[in-house]
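Homework-ish question, so no full write-ups if that breaks the rules, but can someone show me the predicted structure for this set?
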Amino acid sequence: MTEKSSIVTENPWASLKRHTNARIGLGRVGISQPTDKQLAFQLSHALARDAVHIPLDLMRLAGELIDAGLEVIALHSRAGDRQTYLKRPDFGRRLDGDSAARLKTFAEGETASDACIVIADGLSSTAVQSHAGEMARRVDSALKAEGLSVGPVCIVEQGRVAIGDEIGELLGARLLVLLVGERPGLSSPDSLGIYYTYGPRVGLTDAARNCISNVRPAGLPLAESCERLMWLIRESQRRKLSGVTLKDESGDADALDGTGSRNFLLE
Amino acid sequence: MAYSIDLGGNRYRFTDLKSLMAKATPLRSGDCLAGIAAENASERVAAQLCLAEVPLKRFLEEPLIPYESDEVTRLIIDSHNRQAFAPVSHLSVGEFRNWLLSERATTPVLQALAPGLTPEMVAAVSKIMRVQDLILVAAKCEVVTRFRNTVGLKGRMSTRLQPNHPTDDPAGVAASLLDGLLYGNGDAVLGINPATDNYHAVTRLMQLLDDVIQRYEIPTQSCVLTHVTTHLEAINRGAPVDLVFQSIAGTQAANDSFGINLAILDEAHRAALELGRGTLGNNVMYFETGQGSALSANAHQGVDQQTCEVRAYAVARRFDPFLVNTVVGFIGPEYLYDGKQIIRAGLEDHFCGKLLGVPMGCDICYTNHAEADQDDMDMLLTLLGTAGINFIMGIPGSDDIMLNYQTTSFHDALYARQVLGKKPAPEFEAWLQRMGIFDGEGRLATGNQLPAPFAHIADRL
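A: Not a homework solution, just the prediction itself:
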């Protein structure tokens, strides 16, 4: 260890790490990363790689929602397995024949609801397993509190964002809220994305969607994400659109400063 | 027009120039996904042999995407400079490769040629070039841009300091900013990807970056990477906007999917120019691109992803950008499957952009669902540094905790500068020395003490 102290230059600002999960203050040996930091990175990467390939425990998630009094429909995309999902995004954007048929049958027997909630595993089953259940319950309650009717929660395996368009269209829903596991990062394997679409139908592009990203306890907390979503939904209902022309202007600058966090570089 | 070639008793036929280009493209998963890639290795080389015979002029006569239905094609054709094209107008694609590699193609000759080249010509020649060809020719190009400093000079390599934070927390952003500056990064831009498009959050970040630049008198520029229309809104409401950002693609339909078109970009460009915030120059736009973006929006129109990408540079070139960044490995394995495909794509993008006169940088990166790792990034970094890349990303420990991918670290930039003998932008280099971050030899000087101008932060540690 004495050798380490003579070769490795530590960074006096490393304690600023309390403000961020970013890998700051790593120190240096010459201009390179010290061995312990280098191997810590390799371990994180290995964990993230493994996480991409862990399948969603659909029964557990469905059970959680059913226990909370919600109705659940389990669906599957056209991507039969994870490898196909990774190579063929087009398959992940559409329901397989059986799922589409079941959803159609369901829709024929019901009055269409105003809103539908879709959960897709996406690229992080960890995110969906950890947060999608609670988020779906929050969104369901918030929508109902606005006087909107909400259909069953659709859980899609091997699903991508655009698969919500097909589901929303089949259910005849006016509003679509889709929760999806985002690409796992080294420091955030459990990040959920929320996509909102007004008038979902097959063929829409990202320009028609609003996205709230990085939803997780250590990122954008679930409660705040839900508030932002509801702001978007209220504006969207008023203006009858969603996407790039609908800017998220919820809250004001002061409200955003609520954490009291300040830029210490200016002190 | 159909193209064909006889090889070893087999006749290979290609229905049109678009199909010939796609089949001549070195293997990548995105073209397979689109169903336009060569069926096998022999067909790929047959297409390359056939493509090498195509006169460069042919690309002016046979647009890959119709002139009538695509404003990017109209931009390419209408802005083509025939006078600048003259020195190579008689060449075929294969002859053009030879010409580029020859001693005739010097730095000033290539700079004068740029307005005479179309994206399709440049994409075509890149398809029959090896990695060393892409590096050798790109290294002869020089595209220099200015705002508050000078980026792209030979012997220099700049970095975008990317202090992303998952909740845009001011202290969290400041911590990464400080880390980067003290590691000599940030001369291309201090550029944040905001966690949301929320207008108030975005403008608060703009203010934060501007305050830091002013407080420490840093000869650099800021950018918050939000939609161009949000930038316009911010400009109209008086927020401090240095560079205006937008993701762009190479077809009108793909740009539609981003919610933009040339008219919107033109409006934003003019608004940013009117601010007059650049002290050394008027390059005010920052664009990001990446192979596969058109296909991912289902807007590639049968054109291979590399050619679509180069068409995006024609869009960029129209607005005299300060920085153009190909975010090469961000899009995922369905477009660039592994390290090998990412490395080749990064070098193609840099070569093609530079040849068109675009100030290319590269986000040397990969995601956790791609078959790639840090070793692949080290290879691409070293190769792009050798090729004379204008700028790369710099981020704490390679880990973007907001966008969830890995790019080059602050340390990586120092590595590339050291082994390749590169320096930061001259104005920024002088600042680093003034601040005591670099010593007089341009080496990192930070030790156990904070440099004097940052000593006041010690109370906050």
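Now go work out the reasoning yourself. Hint: The radius of gyration of chain B is 22 Å.
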